[in-house]
Amino acid sequence: MKVVVLGASANRSKFGNKAVRSYQELGATVYPVNPNETEIEGLTVYPSLSEVPDKDINRLLVYLPPSVGITLLGEIQVLNPEEVWFNPGSESAELLEQTEEMGMNVITACSIVAVGHSPSQFPEE
Questions:
Q1: DSSP per residue over 36-100, as a string?
Q2: CATH number attached to the domain at 2-121
Q3: What pTM does this model have?
């Protein structure tokens, strides 16, 4: 599985970091995206979606406020992942309406729980 974590974080208490660790534990290829980081959990961080080197993405996980996520919908559409996961707090009615109009395969749920993990199993140390 190839996964992009949009809004990945080096802060281990943030869900954008717990998602990176969760999918690493599954053995997925993880591409963290954050313009303010260079490395997260030993992985190279990409400053934007357009710089993710793999264009065959299974899941794109969103860990951004809706006001930021909505500005990236065009870039998400260009990357064309099989699934776009809007995690709790990253979705809004307007954003979901736009993704529907764009024909994206959207899931609104916790992408960590969806793979059988609990965010609490990833320590914040």
A1: T-SEETTEEPBSSGGG-S----SEEEE-S-HHHHGGGHHHHHHH--SEEEE-TTS--HHHHHHHH
A2: 3.40.50.720
A3: 0.95
